[in-house]
Amino acid sequence: MSRSVLIVALVFLIGEHFARGQECIGKCVKKDECMLVGSTDVVVVPTLPITPVGSIGVDFIDLRLDEGCDRLETCCNERDIIPSMPKDQSSFEQCGVRNLNGIGYRLVGNKAGVSEYGEFPWTLMVLRSQMVVDIVKEVYVCGASLIAPNLAITAAHCVTSYKTEKFYVRAGEWDTNTDKELFATQTRDIIDVIIHENYNKYHHNNIALLKIDTPFNADKNIQTICLPPPNASFNGQECFTGAWGKDKFDQGKLQNILRRVEVPVVPHEECQNAFRSTRLGPHFVLDDSYICAGGEENVDVCTGDGGAPLVCAIAEDSSRYYQVGIVAWGIGCGQKGIPGAYTDVARFVPWIYNNMDALGVNRKTSTFS
Known about the structure:
alpha+beta, Thrombin, subunit H, 6-stranded antiparallel barrel
């Protein structure tokens, strides 16, 4: 039996285990459409095998099957089904609003490192077309963040091949192993990539803007993040980051549920000294285009989280957030005393605004007010 056939057979068996469960006597509906107690509970299984939209290679096969209820649905008696109601109209009126308790679901189980549904509605997936088991799939490349309905930010190193490959961006994603979330995802073509003119082989100035063909529609799970004041400092502040990256550096697995990693911002000199204690050596100089965050053992972003936003609460309104960094690089993942390096977004705000103006993109959707 060939390797690909073995993989498909194994995935089918795993899919049977996760998707079938008990046969539904009633109707499978979205969790907010059933009035039964506990119907909105979602058991967190962040290490489910990930679908092709979330990884690269033949090991990652779509597990969505028709039999039984999807894990973001519930089996509901006909008499307990709540008639579908029109969804509230959303807008991009306020940037940086975090849904602290999520939207609609009550997560149960091991929630460590897992975001609530819709908690960070500005976090995007960058995808590209790739052949997977002789089928063209949109595969996960990096994280990104939405600053306007038709403009996103990511790390430059994620999209250097944009001239030869087709890229997309997806908003509203949470669990890549299901398409049954309460609010639909939206996927758009990337029609232009603006990489900072001083980005170089050393990955200094590691920032890029993604121009989107058709603006995203605002929804509860799709909103923008605020840009910070130029050159603002967030040293010592506890902040959040994460995308769908690996859970550990060696033999880790990409995660199907959007990660949430809480890390402190570390002063530049302290971070540089930490890096000098690694294989980078005692003469390493951390470029001024970077800030750092993290340093707690086993609490870190990792491979696959590149491009994800680092966000910090705004002093004037702690329910809203500035994007202060972009996940760039690190030495391993989660090493004690070794922070990760993030592109310093505050340093690049004038560059971002200049490009927004040139593209005719309104700054309002990323401005705290």
